[in-house]
Amino acid sequence: TESSATCEVCEGAEEMTEPLKQCTAWLHAYFCEPARTASLPVPAFHHPLLQRDSFTRQVLWTLLRDVKFGEAISYKQLADLAGNSRAARAVGGAMRSNPIPIIIPCHRVICSSGQTGNYGGGNLMKEWLLSHEKLQKEKLAY
Fold this sequence. Notes:
Helices cover 44% and strands 3% of the residues. Helix 2 (55-66) packs across helix 3 (75-82) and helix 2 crosses helix 4. It is mainly α.
């Protein structure tokens, strides 16, 4: 069962930079009010991997843009969406190099067989995130 713990932001929030405030607001919404994530701006990403033109960048942006809360996609399907239908293994590499998991939701990428596959935060964390999204999506449907 899911706990009813309250979500809190660390003290000193007034000292945070604007991008950190956006990130905090987005993560708070993801865990506590998932319906709000669609209306919040995605925090600015300044990681070098997301700045240079590459297949990894294309995969990560495609995942962020096209795979919504509570959905899952296979590595092969994501490769297709990113423009190279034969690059499912490269998609796996892109997921491993994702600098901002949860916000760029690599936990939503699963094997074609339906198995969850690996996750940098551990398979239990991936399963928890997928379950969290499924449960929250079901609650929103009521």
